[in-house]
Amino acid sequence: MALNLNLRLECISFVLFCCCLIAGAAGQNVAGRNPTGPNNVQPQHQEPTLKQRPPAQSDAERHRIRLDISVSDASRNPAAGLDLGDFTILDNDQPQKIVAFQQLDPAITGTANLAKVLLVIDFVNSYLNDTAVTLDGVENFLRQNSGHLAHPMTILLLTESGLQVMSQSSQDGNALAEIVHAIPSAVHTTYSVAGGEAYLERYRLSVKTLIVIINREIQEPGRKMLVWTGPGWPLLDGPEEFYNARIHQQNFNVMAVITNGLRKTRMVICSPGGGSEHSFNKYLKPVKTPRDMNAADLDLQVLAVQTGGWTLDPRNGSRPEDQINECTSEFGVAYRLEFDPGKPASPEEYHSLKVMIDKPGLTARTIAEYYGEP
After folding, report:
1. Does domain 111-316 have CATH number 3.40.190.10?
2. Which label site among 82, 148, 233, 353 has the fewest CB atoms less than 10 Å from its CB?
3. pTM value?
């Protein structure tokens, strides 16, 4: 249920606006542990190096939109073997010419181009008695198939102190399981604190963490899936009388930064425990202007759907390991398409996206929207 907080929503917008300003610094100061485990799956310090300046891009190249598209049948099996003629892209309901096309199939491109998974173990938004269940489920997932993971995975831990990077990216599930096994489940979280201030603090920290992750991954190549365990973030929905034009604009700016950042990072979100869709369905609406913006439009489950990812209802009795498996089961074959919508008429101009497949019984998923950039 959405929370109608009797708080001044300036607090929310100000914090989110500051998140964007500090994202660059935050990405360089992610708190970390020095975990140990088999095969030395642990962070390593790298000396800074000079990088060559990338070649100048033409206007057409600079404004190209690049999409990763997952296609599956009614049983959610990935569909391979499609070609350029099977796809139609609509940008604001207008057909677009596809200027580049590539099938991303590990069977063709090899394991070097495997998409990777970022697994966030969320203690901030979880009930204390659920953390042990989550840790056990994550460990069970990592140890299945004799510890061989289909995708490289990085373990991240979110606590009140911030985001901790627990491992390097690895396909050695047993090594990662040892790291997860060493995480204590009795970690204090703000969930036990009563009142709207606790909801606001959890929301603030969650959104800031997403920005940190985007900033951390923006230069890393390849597709990524962000699997965020737990029930999701507080669904903040404030009365309209608490908003003004400045608040709307600031929240809208953050929405554009996160939406475009997820696209450029090539990241989809899966919320394997985020509850039933009825609680956030009304926020799956176009946010075309600042006036349309609500804090709940940045909810985890909303972002999952908008990125072409998944939300899973834990009330079906599935275990955490089953939910993570469901998140990653379709994260194999994909298609990379590019089109050139031209220079936007104005910064942060809203664009809706729709991808259609000329094959019966197939469904395509990709980002649902983007915002124009100068």
Report:
1. no
2. 148
3. 0.83
